[in-house]
Specification:
Blueprint: H1 10-15, H2 26-31, E1 35-38, E2 48-52, E3 55-59, E4 66-70, E5 73-77, E6 83-89, E7 95-101, E8 107-109, E9 117-122, E10 128-134, E11 140-146, E12 153-154, E13 164-170, E14 173-177, E15 181-186, E16 191-196, H3 197-201, E17 213-215, E18 221-231, E19 238-246, E20 252-254, E21 260-267, E22 273-279, E23 285-290, E24 296-300, E25 304-308
Antiparallel strand pairs: 1-4, 2-3, 2-25, 3-4, 5-6, 6-7, 7-8, 9-10, 10-11, 11-12, 13-14, 14-15, 15-16, 17-18, 18-19, 19-20, 21-22, 22-23, 23-24
């Protein structure tokens, strides 16, 4: 059972309703800044989490029911919609991942022996969480921990290979990349597959460490976001878009409409494509959802970094 803090003391509630319980430990207080400022928790039914400025918002798909958090980043809603993972940063730059229970408002810090880990990604069964971890050899790795806060391991811990932007290929395998290769890891930590990115998608797409790859449920296609377009007005950066690669034929199809710069991509285990993107003049990002049939819908008029629960 995950070790969550106890429900809030009344003294805390009198000042402000915190997700983080009062704590006399100064080092943890530096990080504990996630503040709950709106609440509507009946019947749960949370389906989407995203960033709105300096807040995280968890909401029903129709946005009629919302809960928001101040001072946190990297929202990741669990596939069952019951929990929310997020990153907290302290005053000296340390990062850690916390899990909030959206039903009883308790929370717990993931038990990882590290002071720089962030960006939680849930497995489809909501039983495991992958995170980015900066290891003692100054290399980025992928950590995996059970949702009950036990069994933490670091994948491929001994090598000098970096691993960025983890995603679950299925409940037993994780993919990540180092800008040059797309790696598949099993949960014992071994690399069981290596695909050169240029061999997969060619040379016209520019990949950064924050760009993600997501296999479709049948394992035959890969979603990814990458730069391949005109410069964004007022910058030296190329616009990014969402693409779908057919692994067998190597055919690549653009999913997001032209003219939208896509800042973040997330694909659910049931093949729904959520992304945040901005149109010219690129001042405000919206959140969209698309399906494999090409249907696209605007979900949120202002937001970034979306993640979604399963239907």
């Amino acid at each position: 059972m995950m070790m969550f803090n106890k429900p809030f003391a009344s003294a805390c509630i009198a000042i402000s309703l915190f997700l983080i319980a009062c704590n006399s430990n100064n080092s943890e207080n530096d990080a504990n800044k996630a503040v709950l400022d709106t609440i509507s928790l009946s019947n749960k039914n949370f389906a989407l989490a995203y960033q709105d400025g300096d807040k995280i918002v968890a909401t029903s798909i129709d946005t009629m029911k919302q809960i928001s958090f101040g001072g946190a980043t990297d929202p990741a809603i669990s596939p069952d919609g019951n929990k929310l993972a997020y990153t907290l940063s302290d005053s000296v730059g340390n990062r850690s991942v916390w899990i909030a229970d959206l039903e009883n408002k308790s929370q717990g810090k993931l038990q990882v022996n590290n002071n720089n880990y962030y960006g939680a990604v849930w497995s489809a069964d909501a039983g495991k969480i992958a995170i980015n971890v900066f290891n003692k050899n100054s290399v980025w790795k992928i950590g995996v921990i059970k949702a009950d806060n036990s069994g933490y391991i670091m994948l491929d811990s001994a090598s000098k290979i970096n691993a960025f932007s983890p995603a679950w290929k299925n409940d037993h395998e994780i993919i990540a990349h180092d800008l040059e290769n797309l790696y598949t890891f099993d949960l014992s930590g071994k690399i069981i597959g290596t695909e050169p990115i240029k061999a997969l998608i060619g040379t016209v797409y520019n990949i950064s460490s924050s760009n993600g790859f997501f296999y479709t449920k049948d394992g035959k296609k890969i979603f990814f976001n990458a730069a391949n377009g005109p410069l964004i007005e007022g910058t030296h950066d190329e616009a990014e878009a969402v693409y779908l690669l057919d692994v067998a034929s190597k055919k690549i199809t653009q999913i997001s409409p032209k003219g939208i710069h896509v800042s973040f991509l997330f694909v659910t285990a049931d093949d729904r494509i959520f992304y945040s993107g901005a149109e010219k003049p690129y001042k405000q990002s919206k959140i969209y959802v698309a399906d494999l049939s090409g249907n696209i819908k605007t979900v949120v008029d202002k937001g970034t970094y979306p993640t979604a629960a399963l239907k």
